[in-house]
Write a structure and sequence with these properties.
The chain is of the alpha/beta class. The chain is built from twelve helices and 13 strands. It starts with 5 loop residues before the first strand and ends with a helix. It holds the Pfam family Ras.
């Protein structure tokens, strides 16, 4: 015999600057005509939306504060008893974005400590953005709040907004994935002589406590403007003893980092071998030349030698010092961005 589903009422309040789409978002997601209730001396309206999750039927009350943006006493009554507050802004209206911290302060001062808060970026179709995706993400992180991108007019991500918020209220783990216009997944490998420092480079960047043994990888996520790039970088240590890498290691690769050790000239002299192999295996991917600087050891290769070699092959050149954490972020983030640019440029290096 199936157990009967329980029911729960949740109060969701929509606030934010005027013309951020609060009314449109509610009207396009609600299922019933407006209900009117009286709170103190203020007439407040809400619409309802029903969502079934797990073994519970949730009846959402969607409270619209539109028209009350400058009436703080009225807004305080809206916030009373709220389970979740959505603070909306319009990315084409920078002023609405810059007021987010003010709205957050209002909610935190007037609501109870159990009220959840979500920043909602309501994107307007066909209107230029004046707030970059990266800036929006960083601002939400600074405020310590989840952020989601929706389009109230088209319904994009609106259902995700509600279901994620219910899970958030119930204390369940929620992946608040910020939705990017462009998302890329790319594969990178690090090649070079044995003892060139491939494993140490990757493990230092990944902040591993113990360096990986043999083949391993690290995921780098880069958020740049309207794009999100996920780059999986593979360490090929232990495979070079065969004089080269199996073609399978190159298959599906978008970026090849060719590494040498500035304190070991042999690793530099053998670069032409690795460059030739990389060109033969994957001719159209991005290749980068990377100098591993060991500041505690005397140089056997000067940086200008590496730069000259990179210029001859038209490769980007990076200099890193993993022990001092220098140049690491630039290597992984810049190479990922350059890889995506190359993938869609249709041009040879």
């Amino acid at each position: 015999m199936e157990s009967q589903a329980s029911e729960k009422v949740l109060k969701f309040v929509f606030i934010g600057s005027s013309k951020t789409g609060k009314t449109t978002l509610i009207q396009n997601s609600a299922e019933k005509p407006s209900f009117f209730g009286f709170i103190a001396s203020v007439t407040s309206s809400f619409k309802t939306k029903n969502i079934h999750l797990g073994n519970t039927n949730y009846k959402l009350q969607l409270w619209n504060s539109s028209g009350k943006e400058n009436a703080m006493p009225s807004l305080n009554l809206y916030l009373k008893g709220a389970d979740c507050v959505f603070i909306l802004y319009n990315p084409s209206d920078r002023a609405s974005f810059e007021r987010l911290s003010d709205w957050v302060n209002v909610v935190r001062s007037e609501s109870n400590g159990n009220t959840k808060v979500v920043i909602v970026e309501n994107e307007f179709t066909g209107i230029d953005r004046h707030v970059s995706k990266r800036e929006a993400h960083d601002n939400a992180s600074a405020l310590g709040l989840p952020l989601i991108n929706v389009n109230a007019a088209t319904g994009t991500n609106v259902e995700i907004l509600y279901t994620n918020s219910i899970k958030y209220i119930e204390g369940n783990a929620v992946e608040w994935e910020y939705i990017w216009k462009n998302a890329y997944s790319i594969r990178a490998i690090i090649i070079g002589n044995p003892n060139a420092g491939k494993t140490t480079l990757l493990s230092k960047y990944a902040n591993f406590n113990n360096p990986p043994v043999g083949l391993d990888f690290h995921k780098t996520t880069i958020e740049a403007e309207d794009s999100k790039i996920v780059m999986i970088t593979w360490d090929t240590a232990g495979q070079e003893k065969f004089g080269g890498l199996s073609p399978s290691f190159y298959r599906g690769t978008h970026c090849i980092m060719i590494l040498y050790d500035s304190s070991n000239r042999e690793t530099f002299l053998n670069l032409e071998h690795w460059i030739t192999e990389a060109e033969n295996r994957v001719s159209d991917c991005l290749k980068c030349l990377v100098e591993y600087v060991k500041s505690d050891l005397p140089r056997e290769v000067e940086s200008f030698e590496g730069e000259d070699l990179a210029n001859r092959h038209n490769f980007p050149f990076f200099k890193v010092n993993p022990n001092a954490n220098e140049g690491m972020t630039e290597l992984f983030e810049t190479s990922a961005i350059k890889t995506v640019e190359k993938m869609f440029s249709g041009k040879k290096q």
